[in-house]
Amino acid sequence: MSKEEYRQHLVDMAAQIKNPSHGFFGPGSMAWRINREGALGVGALRALLMQVAHPKVAQGVADHSNYRGEPIQRVLTTLRLQQVIVFGSCQEASEALLRINSRHTSVVGIVAEGTNNDNNKTYEANDPYLKLWVFATLVDTMVRMHDQLLTPLSAEEREAFYQESLLFADLMGITSDILPTNLTEFDTWIEDMIASDEIVVTSIAKDIASSLLRLPVAVFWPTNYILAAGSLPPALREAYGFKWNAAIERTYDVGIKAVQVIVRGMPKRLRWMPPYWRAMKRIKKVK
Questions:
Q1: CA-atom Rg of the chain in angstroms
Q2: Alpha-carbon gap, residue 61 to 57, rounded angstroms
Q3: Which residues make Cβ contacts (< 8 Å) with residue 151, sequence separation at least 6?
Q4: Which end of the chain is less congested by CB atoms within 10 angstroms, N or C?
Q5: Cβ-proximal residues to 96 (8 Å cutoff; 6+ apart), any chain
Q6: d(CA 168, CA 130)
Q7: Which of the residue ranges 99-113, 231-245, 254-268 would you say has the lowest mean pLDDT?
Q8: pLDDT above 70: residue 55
Q9: Which among 147, 137, 248 is positioned nearest to 193, based on CA atoms?
Q10: Mean pLDDT of the chain
Q11: What pTM was computed for the model?
């Protein structure tokens, strides 16, 4: 899809929204309900580590970002743009998506390691299949961390969130023909991907992981390690070389319970993300 085609695609999608000022999802959506939870920010490390477990994603990050010098900036930028897409007006979300698409246009190159197929060593950030993997890591992480840190979602809520996420995928330019149609298919797809030879934790991925584990300052490094080891799928935990034993597992469980207690005691004004409150204020002004 060319830049102009993508722009028109977003225009056409926005034209189908009844209240563009509410955004593509709007109040009452599962997307708003889940993404407003600040506690889920701890899942960002899991999602990023899953993303770079794909050799092409890892190579793109290594070739086109200063992940060693400014790792926290990249993480914050990713989170901020995601929040704009979810909580912004249709215009704000579209502008964010166009910036991402434009930036990704130049993210192309050759994979140095992790694939044995000589005919498949090139990568492009706007490749729908790479976008699908990034999208999948975000959805999977949001659902699983919500179940751990907050109240577990019902089967109906999980499915509703996934169906809304298909709109997010469409906004990213992922064609429907490659998307799992429901959450059951999605969960199976994730498991199959992790078990396949397409997902390989390369030395580049481990180097990126090392930079992520050192965020934001040294006092948090042990916590980051335990969070990564405890939240990742076991196969990826092993591939990254993270230790996992009874002591680490107990520490992880204690940390999860501590977050649960803190979240339950927090007033909503502090618990829910600022972009959510700004969106609610915007909606009231429009009314």
A1: 19
A2: 6
A3: none
A4: C
A5: 81, 84, 85, 88
A6: 15
A7: 99-113
A8: yes
A9: 137
A10: 90
A11: 0.91
